[in-house]
Amino acid sequence: MILAAVNFQTLSDAVGLGAIYALMAVGIGLVFGVLRLVNFAYGQLVMAGAYTLAFTSAWPVPLSIAACFGVVVALSLAMETVVFRPLRGQSPAVMLVTTFAIAFLLQAIALIIDLRDDTLGEVAASITSLNEPISVGGVDIRKITLVSVAVAAFALLALALLLTRTTIGLHTRAAAADFRTARLLGVRANRVIAVSVVLSGLLAAAVAVMMTVQFPLVSPDFALRDTIVVLVGVVVGGIDRLWTATLGGFTIGFVSGVLNGALPTDKTVYLPSAVFALVILVLLLRPAGLFAWGRRAAVERA
Amino acid sequence: MPEPVLELAGLEVRYGTVAAVRDVSLRVDKGEIVGLIGPNGAGKSTTLHAIMGVLPTHRGEIRLHGDSVRGRSPESIAHRGVALVPEGRRIFGDFTVEENLRLGLAAHRTHNGAEPLALAYDLFPMLKEFRRRLAGALSGGQQQQLAIGRALVAEPDLLLLDEPSLGLAPLAVDDVFQALRRIPERGVTILLVEQRALHTVALADRTHVLVAGKLRLTLDPADAKDPDKIVAAYLAS
Fold it and tell me: Which pTM was predicted?
């Protein structure tokens, strides 16, 4: 009986983590779609949002969250105009390495700002009350799990409607499928890229809010490990389609959560090894992506 | 007085240090169909790509309605009323037929929405019938009709076609040329790049022969009855 309850607890936490990772995967996938750029610095957007929440934790909660969204979206747009735009059309390797550089630059800046008070790390504790459990049908579920799942479901639904029901969504999908032809038809490159970058920034901000609830201590490497795991999930799911990337993000979050719960506490250091062993297995068996049925591997597409 | 829609003046386009198109001058007047034929690698597609702003102009000038388009992006040229039917059709196979046509509206200059799709449906009734199907499920000839329809819904002044008959069955080729014949009556001017020399010469008001990046001679519809002259134009290099 106790075991069953623990398992359910683990599963619900795993779903919550999967939801957050799915949002990060969409954020990465959206920008990849229009720019063919894997943004390794995506985690630093989340980190910037987390610091904003920490520095504004004395403010009323809605204002603090609004500031987080403002900072992350602004930083996201700045990244696009200052770095991505001049690099447009460069090889994927150049762009990837550049995003590594941005990631480390942003971490260094965060470190300088953080160390002004001579201690490493800031606390973003304004909404940690969401960690409290509520009882659903006799099982305890943390409120943040429910919030994460609800936010992810809402965000994904809104995004799906935007992409399928609006003109800018149609243009964005066309740009992701064949940018050159889309431009020849009159689709404005800068506009669809800006829309994707803003949307991916909004998602990063939402992720920052939800992650600080579970990990209130914000340091420069906040969300770094998660970004690597999500990137792996995105590739495993299939990066060239938004929904497979999203599913990949959710899956790797869910699997990490379950393994984390299943491993004895003194063995959790093996969690990354277990996750990445599974990843290697998946890539060996399904090189085109876990959810890419009947399609060739992304690398084979010219 | 004929009104020029497109003028190329001494156009030179290069790939690196290699000139793919050299000193090409031609004009297309309002309501005309002008053909551009020539063997593979003659620079036909290169010329169209330069007009669309995909390739930079190394020397010379491209003018639309008398204004130079130097340095403009492909999307801004599309918004100035030039539509391209690209080589290989380039339709969006995962999108429905109607979504493909709505993409053509991206360069539409009056923004009234529903009406322009009727232009494509009117010319190609098949597109209306299959509007909810995925474009990738259409036959090659149908996809070509979709590509032409998608260019027309933008209601362009100038339609550029890059080998619309490429890879089509003979009957489908005839369909495409039949459709092209009906386009000028909508006030659209055409520059047609083709390999099907006889079809093109017979259809166009004038047809220029491009060989090794240079205009070699100009044919008129009467020359369609004289295939030897066309063959000679290809071979005399």
Answer: 0.89
